[in-house]
Design brief:
It comes from Falseniella ignava. It is found in: Cytoplasm. GO terms for molecular function: ATP binding; damaged DNA binding; DNA helicase activity; hydrolase activity. It holds the Pfam family CarD_TRCF_RID. With about 1150 residues, this protein is α/β, with parallel strands linked by helices. It has eight domains: about 200 residues, P-loop containing nucleotide triphosphate hydrolases (Rossmann fold); about 80 residues, Penicillin-binding protein 1b fold, CATH 3.30.2060; about 45 residues; about 70 residues, Rossmann fold; about 110 residues, Beta Barrel (Thrombin, subunit H), CATH 2.40.10; about 200 residues, Rossmann fold (3-Layer(aba) Sandwich); about 150 residues, Rossmann fold (3-Layer(aba) Sandwich); about 150 residues, Aspartate Aminotransferase, domain 1, CATH 3.90.1150. It contains 39 helices and 47 strands. The strands form nine sheets. It has a seven-stranded parallel β-sheet with strand order 3-5-2-14-15-1-16, with helices on both faces. The protein is globular, with a radius of gyration of 35 Å.
């Protein structure tokens, strides 16, 4: 294994390890990656719990990245909000999960490194004993009281939900308890027999089915600050006394009424056993001594403090910033005055009874500290060479002559080889380091570090690729579990109040499931309300006829009138339009099948080398998509493929591999993008990716001079230019290709009608690959019926974080601190403000809040040239903050912008919010989105749902699925250039799609498969209870889901599988559920073999077949089927229809159903044999 030259630190590290306990030491001189290397070496020699406090955001992130690269043990972040306003807002769960992870790790005492900021030390935590009691070990066969288990889950932060899908949730259904701890890869299912724990299983949160049986599990808290309800309630007398005192001394009558009402609300919540929103603010009244993260460290732990003087300065700034928010909340009655909400970090760190190692550039803020030892290193940060080889050569040669150990740290083996080849071209004595570094050589090692440095006295120099080639650091891939990769709920799931579409009755409103009694038998029915309060009860066995009404986001449909003609007319109108679209789609499909294009050759060795040059590991979806595209290109049918993938999921790299394949076969490639800014970005990406290959790349857009454009056009005509990137300028008549083989279109829906017509012509001649992050249903329709093929990239790259999303009242303190934090790490900020009239004033407000920020404005009323100029300047880092309208919603890729504010987020649609949030979090950096609404504003229910939905969908992987749901909700847009969203709104997306599919199938001659099987309904006249009782499944949404699964039973396997799933998820099922599932299988077989009626007549069961079933079930087949049951049977034929009478004297319902299953299955199997004959 290649290693760094750390001998320079060995003597000091040995001294530190040999010291007495609680020694305080100081190291000056070292900075950045040199500090990380020193700490990693200390940890290797002396592994135990380490806590590092770094007050600067940028340095904290870089230190974390470096240590992750240098050590194999856990390196964990304890993230804490600088701003109290943010800390108490509705935050996404990831940061809480990270803090829980740290507290659980420290509770074990295992070696590892924890990093935090000043706010992490200031944060008030639960007493250590309270936290440790929060781990509950459950063992198979153990006895646990149900009420105590539920009390534990509630106290330790778990939220009760009907269905457990995300970490921090639990659910109780009968004897089954589902729990999803943050530190488990999958949720846990506990199955009790009375109070004995009968089984423990992990289960899949998407399918809700069990995976593995385990013997024991430890449930850890799902909240970072545990404040037991009983402890909160014990504070009621003291709180009441304080509150009464404040109310009494408030002179303003209006103010007094406000805070009095708020205080009463707080006391009521506590008395009713509800947890307070501001509970942790009152921790100091319960935990008087005050617990911080330092108290969670074992006595032998190592504390490392970066820049104590800076910590003192940061703490003073935070105190000022938070004071305004505290005063505001106190005046609103949300908080009590004079409550210590945070610890003092500076004093706690100075006086911590731990081995403490300080790193500092200067000894500022350290007066009065007695150091056991002080070690000073002479240190120089590394200058950038900006790829100037003459400068690199002279510096490297100088260091080697001086006897330095020279090491170049690069991000991958591929980069190591590339650097080695480059240095050899200049006759520099480079080696790719295999183990120890060699003197007189330039040692190249694959190790990603943030900064290079020189230690002149120790004769050691480390250079990174960032300094050599100005190449951004590529962080170590994190393959850790994506516990929150979102499992999207089906958009067809029904909630009470949702609009539904019934094919016969039209659009109604779903009001729930009702258990009804008919002739003494219980069954469930779906209640649907129509105009004038008319309603129907649809038997649950027909639930598959219902569809959720999905159309434009703003559309509220009118309820149809039961029995009126309006719905028939609407359907007829839509049908005629569907027929036209079906004709056009079929014509397109036929044309595509007949066209013949160029068949590209199979992959060449050069193709493999080009792909190996990609420095990141590909995701499985990327690899599959690449394979699908190559297969299309190698066939002689013109490719027309849609590549769908969320922002930053690697669509461009997939496309570039197709580009390389095309140019290697001598063909030209056109890369068409909707905006000039995007053209510029793609052009630079291609130039960089193709740097080592002899292909000319051209750019056609308004940013390119007329002369350069003409040179590119000439080159395309002669074939001198292989690849061209451009806007719709590429589609102009004067652009003629020598031999165009591949057209790549980015976000096609953003081109105009005229351009689309030109694209239609090109489609039939060349291979076409369309890239999109948000497919509009028009493109999905085309994929659905085979006009266009579809590839999906649904998995994020391994080193991407979810966007941290906060929903909160607009707060200037938060805006100021978040912009400063982003600027401190060298990043940029979007501030979304959707009112052009006052956007200048908003920009000035931000400028006043953060005077050092460079603020720019962009909106749709600027000229195109002005807009593009501002955006390009922002991309190039000229500005820190862009105050903009929703013009940034799509198509702008600014990886350095990782903080987003959205003003008046409650007024925006879900899809817009999702698109906007997609502007940040495109790299390995943690990104933040703040969704603001007006202070004191009462949000509408719809706004609240929308904001909660976007917050919940912070999880990685939610992107494509949420976009699909959004687009379905938003409307299917515009198919083949014809505006038809009005038609979709009138019948709903799903029915529209169904009508279109049926029309296509019919016109293609595939609509008459069931002509020889006339039976589609079964007349069932047998009294029994067949429904799902509410005490078995209480949640209506889950009940609907199970009814849908019951309707889908189409085999013995599906029948058994559903029974297993019911037992797995809900426990042993009662008789009515057993009857329901049995009947579903009987009905499936019965319809397949031509049974039209099953009716009970006293002690007999009469089964009637149609003519078709009678013909098929003749001779020995009927006897073979009857041999499967032990009932006496009589046969007769009436009107060419077989009637079979079974004796069911003294038979219970379950025995009758069992006989029917055996008989119908046996008969069905004889049909299969007949087919084979």
């Amino acid at each position: 294994m290649p290693r760094l030259y750390t001998e320079v630190f060995e003597e000091v590290i040995a001294q530190l390890i040999d010291e007495r306990s609680n020694a305080v030491d100081l190291i000056t001189g070292l900075d950045d990656s040199a500090r990380a290397i020193f700490i990693a070496q200390l940890f290797h020699k002396n592994p135990k719990p380490y806590l590092i406090v770094e007050p600067r955001s940028k340095q904290l992130n870089e230190l974390y990245e470096d240590l992750t690269e240098l050590i194999d043990e856990p390196v964990l972040l304890f993230p804490a909000e600088d701003s109290l306003a943010v800390e108490y807002s509705i935050a996404s769960q990831e940061r809480i999960a990270q803090r829980i992870d740290v507290l659980n790790h420290l509770a074990t005492g295992r070696p590892g490194i924890i990093l935090t900021n000043v706010a992490g030390i200031q944060m008030r935590l639960s007493p250590v004993d309270t936290w440790k009691k929060g781990s509950l070990k459950l063992q198979l066969g153990g006895e646990y009281a149900f009420n105590q288990l539920e009390a534990y889950l509630s106290c330790y932060g778990y939220q009760r939900e009907p269905l457990v899908e995300l970490p921090g949730q639990y659910s109780i259904r009968g004897s089954i308890v589902d729990i999803y701890p943050f530190d488990q890869a999958n949720p846990i299912r506990l199955d009790f027999f009375d109070e004995e724990l009968d089984s423990i299983r992990t289960f899949d949160p998407l399918e809700q089915t069990s995976i593995d049986n385990i013997d024991q599990v430890t449930i850890t808290p799902a909240i970072d600050i545990v404040f037991p309800i009983e402890a909160q309630q014990a504070l009621i007398p003291e709180l009441r006394q304080r509150m009464d005192h404040i109310v009494k001394h408030t002179s303003n009558e209006e103010q007094r009424a406000l805070i009095s009402a708020r205080y009463q609300e707080t006391l009521d919540q506590l008395e009713q056993g509800e947890s307070l929103k501001f509970a942790s603010a009152y921790l100091s009244l319960w935990d008087r001594t005050g617990t911080s993260l330092l108290d969670y460290l074992s006595s032998d732990a190592q504390l490392i403090v970066m820049e104590l003087g800076r910590i003192q300065q940061v703490e003073f700034q935070l105190l000022e910033e938070n004071q305004f928010w505290i005063e505001q909340e106190v005046s609103r009655g949300q908080l009590l005055p004079n409550i210590e909400m945070k610890h003092e970090a500076y004093h706690r760190l100075r006086e911590a009874p731990l081995n403490t190692l300080h790193f500092a550039s200067l000894q500022r803020g350290m007066s009065g500290i007695t150091f056991h030892s002080i070690h000073n290193y002479q240190y120089r940060g590394m200058n950038s060479f900006f790829h100037q080889m003459s400068l690199i050569e002279s510096e490297l040669t100088h260091w080697l002559r001086q006897g330095f150990i020279v090491q170049i740290a690069v991000s991958s083996k591929h980069e190591a080889q590339r650097t080695y080849d480059l240095l050899h071209e200049y006759d520099l004595p480079a080696i790719i380091q295999a183990d120890d570094p060699q003197s007189e050589k330039i040692n190249i090692l694959p190790l990603s570090l943030s900064k290079g440095f020189e230690l002149p006295l120790d004769k050691w120099v480390v250079i990174t690729e960032q300094e050599l080639f100005n190449q951004q650091r590529r962080p170590k891939v994190r393959s850790g579990k994506q516990s929150n990769a979102e499992r999207l709920k089906d958009y067809n799931e029904l909630d009470i109040g949702d609009y539904v579409v019934h094919p016969i009755h039209g659009i109604g409103r779903y009001t729930g499931i009702e258990t009804i009694e008919i002739n003494g038998n219980h069954t469930d029915a779906v209640a649907i309300e129509y105009r004038d309060q008319a309603r129907i009860l649809l038997p649950v066995e027909n639930i598959s006829q219902l569809q959720k009404y999905v159309a434009s986001e703003s559309t509220t449909p009118k309820l149809n009138k039961l029995g009126g003609t309006e719905w028939k007319k609407t359907k007829a109108r839509v049908q005629s339009q569907v027929e036209d679209i079906a004709d056009e789609l079929i014509q397109l499909y036929a044309q595509r099948e007949q066209e013949r294009g160029f068949a590209f050759a199979q992959d060449t060795p050069e193709q493999y080398k080009f792909e190996d040059d990609f420095p990141y590991p590909e995701t499985e979806d990327q690899l599959r998509s690449i394979q699908e595209i190559k297969q299309d290109m190698e066939s002689d049918r013109p490719m027309d493929r849609l590549l769908v993938g969320d922002v930053g999921y690697g669509k461009t790299e997939v496309a570039l591999r197709a580009v390389f394949k095309a140019v290697m076969d001598g063909k030209q490639v056109a890369f068409l993008v909707p905006t000039t800014v995007l053209a510029q970005q793609h052009y630079h990406t291609i130039i960089e990716r193709f740097a080592d290959w002899p292909f000319e790349v051209g750019l056609l857009s308004r940013f390119v001079s007329k002369a350069k454009q003409q040179t590119t056009i000439d080159g395309l005509k002669t074939g001198a230019i292989s690849i061209v990137v451009g806007t719709h300028r590429i589609l102009s008549k004067d652009v003629v290709f020598n031999d165009l083989g591949l057209l790549i279109i980015d976000e096609e829906q953003r081109f105009g009608v005229k351009h689309k017509e030109r694209l239609k012509q090109l489609r039939s001649q060349v291979d076409v690959l369309t890239l999109t992050a948000t497919p509009i249903p028009r493109t999905l329709h085309m994929s659905m019926i085979g006009v266009r093929d579809l590839s999906l990239i649904e998995t994020p790259p391994n080193n991407r974080y979810p966007v941290q999303t906060y929903v909160m009242e607009r707060n200037n303190g938060v805006i100021k601190s978040a912009i400063e934090r982003e600027m401190a790490r060298g990043g940029q900020v979007f501030y979304l403000y959707n009112r052009v009239a006052s956007i200048d004033r908003k920009a000035q407000e931000i400028q006043d809040l953060v005077p050092e920020a460079r603020v720019a404005i962009s909106h749709g009323q600027m000229s195109e040239a002005q807009l593009e100029s501002v955006l390009l300047d922002f991309i190039e880092g000229v500005y820190d903050v862009l105050v903009t309208t929703t013009i940034i919603e799509t198509g702008i890729d600014i990886p350095n912008a990782n903080t987003l504010f959205v003003d008046d987020a409650d007024r925006m649609g879900l899809s817009t919010l999702y698109q906007l949030r997609g502007r940040v979090g495109r790299t390995h950096r943690l990104a933040y989105a703040y969704l603001f609404y007006e202070p004191f504003k009462q949000l509408s229910e719809i706004s609240e749902k929308r904001l909660n939905a976007i917050r919940e969908f912070t999880e990685l992987g939610s992107g494509f699925k949420l976009a699909m749901r959004d687009l379905s909700i938003r409307g299917a847009g515009n198919l083949l250039g014809q505006q038809q969203s009005g038609f979709i709104d009138s019948v709903g997306y799903e029915l529209y799609t169904q009508m279109l599919q049926q029309a296509i199938k019919r016109k293609q001659g595939g609509g008459s498969q069931l002509v020889d099987r006339p039976t589609s309904t079964l007349d069932w006249q047998f009294e029994m209870d067949a429904y799902i009782p509410s005490d078995y499944i209480s949640d209506e949404r889950q009940k609907v889901g199970i009814y849908k699964l019951v309707q889908r039973i189409d085999s013995q396997e599906a029948y058994v599988q559903l029974q297993d799933e019911l037992i797995d998820r809900y426990g042993e099922f009662p008789d009515p559920v057993s009857n329901l599932v049995d009947f579903a299988l009987i009905k499936y077989y019965a319809l397949e073999i031509g049974i039209t009626q099953i009716r009970r007549k006293r002690q007999e069961l009469i089964i009637t077949f149609n003519e078709w079933g009678t013909q098929h079930l003749q001779g020995e087949r009927i006897f073979k089927a009857l041999s499967a049951i032990d009932n006496k049977a009589y046969m007769g034929v009436k009107n060419n229809q077989l009637e079979l009478t079974l004796n069911i004297y003294n038979k219970a319902v379950d025995q009758v159903l069992n006989s029917l299953i055996r008989f119908t299955r046996a008969a069905y199997e004889t049909f299969d044999q007949k087919e084979e004959e």
